[in-house]
Amino acid sequence: MQSNETAPEERAVAAAAAAVESPAVGEAAAAEPPQAEDNGVALQEELQQARLKANEYQDLWLRAKAETENVRRRAQEDIAKAAKFAVDRFARELLPVKDSLEAALATEKATVESMRAGSELTLKQLIAAFEKSALTEINPVGEKFDPNRHQAISVVESGQEANTVVTVLQKGYLLAERVLRPALVIVAKAAS
pLDDT tens digits for 163-192? Predict the structure, then answer.
């Protein structure tokens, strides 16, 4: 009976000894802690790489944001300059006209003929300045009345077709096909 009672104890001791001596069990037990350590190190490395990437993307984003802000600021400055100096070219074209008028007024012994000739030359300079600046006149005598380009002051009976411009009281002007000032006109009345 004694051999039966010690048999389970001996078997347990023998199994424990076999487990310690068995290379497969020993390696598995020894391998588990280093594998957990390797996983921890790998996770730390991945976390560090992710932080570096996040910092890199944040830096790129900040640079892009700053560049966008610079472009916006430069565009606003360009718009302000364009508005401020929009008439630069036209003003340069008008300077000779002013010079001609001043020269005419400075002449003490001007005759009517010389004043008329000077005025005609000055008018030609002004017309040339208008043409260079895409400023064209509206002189619609004989044309159909166009409320987008003409402003009717009155209506008169006329031998012309109804709604035709009979007289231009004041010429209108277009600036690059946009009405700057409508022509003031008198329009033919429809026959009653």
Answer: 999 999 999 999 988 999 999 999 998 876
Q: Name the amino acid, one letter, at 67.
A: E
Total-model pTM: 0.56
Question: 135-192 falls under which CATH superfamily?
Answer: Head domain of nucleotide exchange factor GrpE (2.30.22.10)
In the chain, what are the domain boundaries? 2-84, 87-133, 135-192
At CB < 8 A and 24+ separation, what contacts does 142-150 make? 145/185, 145/187, 148/179, 149/174, 149/179, 149/182, 149/183, 150/182, 150/183, 150/184, 150/185
- Name the one residue in this structure whose structure tokens are 């340069």: 92
